[in-house]
Amino acid sequence: MLYWLVGLGGLMGSLLRYGVAELSLLLPGNEAVLSVYICNVLGSFILAWLLVRAAEMGHWGDPVRLALGTGLLGSFTTFSALSAEALGMLGRGDWITALIYVTSSFIGGWLAAWLGWRLGQPTIILADKGEAEL
Amino acid sequence: MSLIWLYVALGGFAGAMSRYAIIQFISTRFSTAFPYGTLTVNVIGSFVLGLLLGTNMDEESKYAYAALGIGYLGSFTTFSTYAVESLQMSQKKRWRTLLLYQLTSYGLSISAAAIGFLCGRSLT
Q1: pLDDT of B77-119, one tens digit each?
Q2: Predicted model pTM
Q3: Which of A89, B79, B99, B112 could form a disulfide with B46 if both were Cys (CB 3.0 to 4.6 A apart)?
Q4: What's the complex ipTM?
Q5: Does A89 touch chain B (CB under 8 A)?
Q6: Do B74 and A106 touch (CB under 8 A)?
């Protein structure tokens, strides 16, 4: 049952990621790199937000976390395409671009997760200056 | 609507299930603070994607690449969990673990993709 939730979430996440990739073809320039980056940063933001919210959902927390967190957002974001893109840059001798890509992936992912975690905090807890752990 | 979407979806379904199974398997056996499960799927997935690209699958068989490369491996590997784990490490002030996680995630995954690519090239 839990596996099906993860699988169905993964199905939707991969379709959304492919949709973003198709949309990015309308843009000029390095659209493949851009679409992977957008999915990764956006997905990190929503996952951190979701994990804080799911902690408050009681018995609904686990299925929501598995279907939307592990399944949908886990599949919407990707690391293999990131590795392949970075490898392509290195292969062209573009060491600087590869370094910028990797560094901005780390910073973008980290900041997005931080922002999602921060915005996910319930207002009452914020007022108490106490913060829920992820 | 192109049939490509169907292949991406089927791959994504199986990829997410496989990732969940492997991370569950690893996290129940090695209960450490270091996220070996996420690292493992990302490194293995990067190797296999490199392998597919090395054999030119993305140009020679579009449907197979949509199912395996975009759907399966795209979903098998993940970035959002890695980002949340990185945030958790910094919130717990585990700076050395955070640094090690970054170096291994990017270093091993990109190296794995390179090795996979070279293997793919030698097969064709």
Answers
A1: 999 999 999 999 999 999 999 999 999 999 999 999 999 999 9
A2: 0.93
A3: B112
A4: 0.95
A5: no
A6: no
